[in-house]
Amino acid sequence: MTDLHNDDNLLDEEALNRLPNGAKLSWGIVKQSRRGPKGELSIAKIVEAAIELADRDGLAAVSMNRVASSLGFTTMSLYRYVTSKEELLLLMQDAVCDRNIPPERTDGNWREDMRGYVRACIEVFEQHPWYGDIPISGIPIAPNTLRYIDWVMRSMRDFPINDFEKMSFLLLISSYARSCGIIHRDMMRAIEAGASAESFSGMSFGPALRQLVTPERYPDLYPVIASGVYTGEREQDNPIGNDFDFGLERILDGIAVYLESKGKIG
């Protein structure tokens, strides 16, 4: 977590006080409690224990009581550091986004930067399946998640577009990353629960769907199901490769076309 206490003279306290307490904790604006048995607890230890619990048992298993028990402390001991579960969830989200951002590229390849961002986001969902179970409650305001956004802004530094357009592109690729991340996560959960990759893709349902989906009722879907493509029965013949990569490349193509219309070759 960032510590801003050495720069107190630069901070607008009134503005900072409008932040949720969880965000202030993530930035190090709120000084950690020194109460308790020899300072054995800390925000970092609490967050680490909560993440371990969520990774193992899911987000529903995370409670102040269970986190405290896993650390060998009382629930009231935790409240001296983190005052609510909402604060803890924000800190957990930001903690798992504490990752190395690649160095700035020298070749101007903004597409590769955006690919890297999307892959990194998807990895968070895969490595911490509970991440996607936390509802979006507002814009990112914690330091590590903002470093991810800065990564995308860096890739668009020389784009001939305004900040509103840059934010729209950020939302576009972030939404795609979240969607893909949750699908990947759900596939992993299904397989861990005993399903096969084939059953997740619906391959075993192909013969039944070819009987139930008639050309009269589903005139445009029927040919796709009849061909076996809908249920993944012909993946070996897929000329576009990975579906997720294909979708991302089309998004990047769209950004490139938009930039060309603004006078920049994408």
From TrEMBL:
Where DNA binds (residue ranges)?
A: 63-82
- List the InterPro entries hit by this protein, alphabetically: Homeodomain-like_sf, HTH-type_TetR-like_transc_reg, HTH_TetR, Repressor_TetR_C, Tet_transcr_reg_TetR-rel_C_sf
Q: Per its UniProt record, what SUPFAM superfamilies does this chain match?
A: Homeodomain-like (SSF46689), Tetracyclin repressor-like, C-terminal domain (SSF48498)
Print the keywords alphabetically: DNA-binding, Transcription, Transcription regulation
Q: Which residues form the HTH tetR-type domain?
A: 40-100
Q: Does the record bear Transcription in its keywords? A: yes
For this UniProt entry, which segments traverse the membrane? Answer: none
Signal peptide segment: none
Q: Which Gene3D superfamilies match?
A: Homeodomain-like, Tetracycline Repressor, domain 2
Cited Pfam families: TetR_C_1 (PF02909), TetR_N (PF00440)
- For this entry, the protein name equals TetR/AcrR family transcriptional regulator
Q: Which organism is it from?
A: Cohnella yongneupensis
